[in-house]
Amino acid sequence: MIHFLAMVLLAACVSVVFGVVGRATAREQWRYGLRVFAEFVGVGLGLAWLLYWIP
Which residues are within 8 A (CB) of 36 and not within 5 positions of it... i.e. 6 or more apart? Predict the structure, then answer.
């Protein structure tokens, strides 16, 4: 569980920075930040599931 929380915390921090730096308006920043957060968590869970089955 601690690894999942660390992944979510890292994804949140990175998505905030990417959102602020990557877009101009506040609405675009929020949408882009949420998208990056979802992609980070989704890819992390996908890789974790894939690596679980590889010995």
Answer: 11, 14, 15, 18, 19
Q: How many CA atoms lie within 13 A of 33 on its CB side?
A: 19
Give CA–CA dist 31/3, Å, rounded.
26
Per-residue pLDDT reduced to its tens digit, 15-29: 999 999 988 899 999
User: Dihedral through CA 39, CA 30, CA 10, CA 6, nearest 10?
Assistant: -80
Long-range pairs, 46-50, Cβ under 8 A, ≥24: none
In this prediction, the residues of the chain whose per-residue pLDDT falls under 70 are none
